[in-house]
Write a structure and sequence with these properties.
By secondary structure, the protein is an alpha/beta fold. Helix content is about 30%, strand content about 35%. The protein is globular, with a radius of gyration of 17 Å. It comes from Myroides marinus.
């Protein structure tokens, strides 16, 4: 309780956890709430939760509630899962993929991740491998994968994108959270958009979400 109160004046670190993926994770009290940070960026809950909630709002909460299958690539400590279950009231199937065992430990210990076990499966596996092996199809695919402030290169490779397209249902959406720090990142995102043929996909970009995040929503038309 004391840490929570003090956090309204200055961030208070609750726990540091080593990570094989992001080197070190910090569970921190900020303005009375727990968040997870890496050395350079917010990793789960906090501003990141707001960014992804904005992206889901762009798609439409009522539309999402009617979907049957959702895939989360990069579960983290469960911020977007919490939004789906508690705020949007989405109750159908969710597959979550998270490679980092450290963040899953944090999610269970500090954010009660296990409360969302109904119609929810966590796959502790690399997202690239999961997507390539998947035989399921999804109405919504949320991509939120970072290694500290860096995004893995495979996310932007045509082979991975083609597989995403295969497992996305018609009228389904991809919500892709990216970070844009410089002109090179801007060009990377522009090139990424060209991997989706305009006759089959509708793409919208929402830049400067919490300053450095750019959200992409991609709808499969046919």
């Amino acid at each position: 309780m004391i840490k929570r109160i003090l956090s309204y004046f200055t961030p208070i670190i609750e726990k540091r956890v080593p990570s094989k993926v992001s080197q070190r994770l910090e569970v921190t009290w900020v303005d009375g709430n727990l968040v997870v940070d890496t050395k350079h960026t917010n990793y789960s809950y906090g501003n990141l939760e707001k960014v992804l909630k904005n992206g889901l709002a762009f798609i439409g909460f009522e539309k999402i509630k009617k979907m049957n299958n959702v895939l989360i690539l990069g579960l983290g400590a469960g911020g977007v899962l919490k939004t789906l279950r508690d705020e949007i009231k989405y109750q159908n199937n969710i597959d979550s993929v998270e490679l980092d065992e450290a963040i899953l430990f944090i999610g269970n210990k500090y954010f009660n991740l296990k409360q969302y076990h109904d119609n929810h499966t966590i796959h502790n596996i690399d997202a690239f491998e999961f997507v390539l092996r998947s035989t399921n199809s999804y109405d919504l695919i949320i991509i939120d994968i970072f290694q500290d402030a860096r995004m893995p290169a495979f996310l932007f490779e045509s082979y991975f994108v083609e597989k995403l397209q295969q497992i996305l249902n018609i009228n389904g959406f991809i919500l892709f959270n990216t970070i844009v720090l410089n002109k090179e990142d801007e060009v990377r995102n522009e090139n990424y958009s060209t991997l989706f043929p305009k006759e089959n996909y509708s793409i919208r970009a929402y830049p400067k979400q919490q300053k450095y995040n750019e959200l992409l929503t991609i709808k499969k038309l046919q």
